[in-house]
Design a protein that fits this description.
The protein has 330 residues and is of the alpha/beta class. The protein folds into two domains: 142 residues, Rossmann fold (3-Layer(aba) Sandwich), CATH 3.40.50.2300; 147 residues, Response regulator (Rossmann fold, 3-Layer(aba) Sandwich). 47% of the residues lie in helices and 18% in strands. It has 13 helices and 13 strands. The chain has a six-stranded parallel beta sheet, sandwiched between helices. A four-stranded parallel beta sheet has the order 7-6-8-9, with helices on both faces. The protein has a three-stranded mixed beta sheet with strand order 10-12-13. Strand 6, helix 6 and strand 7 form a beta-alpha-beta unit. About 5% of the residues have low confidence.
């Protein structure tokens, strides 16, 4: 009887030891889980996502091999944004990456424990995401994509020395666009450039409001604005009919029919975001003490084909700068 009991006991110990080792092995092999939330598909935002993936890979985090990345895209729908943010938070993501202000806000509203890294949030303080740029505090840090507004305004004046009125169009419900609009108003006063502002609430307003604006202004400036970026073809169509130039804040919007910009490189934003996420995953940094990163200088971007199409003379200085340091679309 004693032998039977001893035999059973040895089996129990063996199975327990085997189960422990298997559980330990599975635990050690568990890949870190990163949740990525994007507002919608658009060339600029897709570039941020690509930069993020490449930045992570450069740090040794390759999707499916050394990390599990769950990409969610809300297709511009606010209800989708909330549902997808909830999914990523509830699925025990180790860290979250939000592309655009609305995406970052949706994630931040659901957790104060899981690290949230902002990808391309123009003014994170005004958006209520952080309190301090150097030491954000809490569980949030990331990248700001505030455009070089002063440089952009000077560029417009260089293209159009006889500019009488500059039209500025933005989406009032887009906090990033509104933040840049405030900066445009402030800097235009310093540079003595008369502006007339027009706001829309959604993409359905763009056709009518842009037609009204183009009838009264000499040129159009567009801040970083996800709604207008998604409906850029409407603005370009109306501006082409009036032979008036558009000066966007983003390189991809120049390619879509804008004339020129000192544009923030969207891929670079994502690349920086990827490195921040990797650093937090490795335990090297914490969101609370990781300063907000900025891309201070825009790249010179020129759509030479568009300038010729509407009869706008390109300053020789900017043409050479775009050819040597930026990008020229022909």
């Amino acid at each position: 009887m004693k032998r039977i009991i001893a035999f059973i006991s040895s089996i129990v110990v063996f199975l327990g030891f085997a189960f422990f080792n298997e559980s330990k092995s599975k635990s050690s092999n568990k890949l870190p889980h990163v949740g990525v939330l994007n507002l919608m598909h658009h060339p600029a935002l897709d570039q941020i996502q690509k930069g993020f993936t490449d930045g992570m890979k450069a740090e040794g985090f390759e999707d499916g091999r050394t990390v599990k990345i769950d990409y969610q895209n809300a297709q511009g729908d606010q209800s989708n944004l909330k549902t997808m943010a909830t999914k990523l938070v509830n699925e025990n993501s180790d860290i979250l990456f939000g592309i655009t202000t609305p995406a970052s806000q949706s994630l931040a509203n659901l957790t104060n424990k899981i690290p949230v890294v902002m990808g391309a949030v123009t003014d994170p303080k005004s958006a209520g995401l952080i309190k301090n740029f150097k030491k954000p505090g809490g569980n949030i840090t990331g990248v700001s994509n505030m455009s070089p507004i002063k440089d952009q305004l000077k560029l417009i004046k260089e293209f159009m020395p006889n500019l009488r009125i500059l039209g500025v169009i933005y989406t009032s419900s887009d906090s990033s666009a509104s933040a840049e609009h405030r900066e445009i108003v402030k800097e235009s006063k310093k540079l003595k450039i008369p502006i007339k502002s027009y706001s829309i609430t959604n993409s359905n307003d763009l056709n009518q409001v842009s037609q009204e604006m183009l009838d009264k202004v000499d040129a159009v400036m567009v801040p970083q604005d996800n709604v207008i970026a998604g409906a850029m073809e409407t603005l370009v169509k109306n501006a082409d009919l009036m032979k008036k130039p558009i000066f966007p804040a983003v390189d991809t919007m120049v390619k879509q029919g804008g004339v020129a910009a000192y544009g923030i490189n969207q891929y670079q934003l994502g690349l920086i975001g990827g490195h921040i996420v990797a650093s937090i995953l490795k335990g090297k940094t914490k969101p609370a003490t990781t300063s907000i990163q900025f891309v201070r200088h825009g790249q010179p971007i020129l759509n030479l084909k568009q300038a010729k199409k509407i009869g706008i003379k390109v300053p020789e200085r900017f043409l050479k700068e775009a050819q040597s340091k930026g990008e020229v679309f022909k």
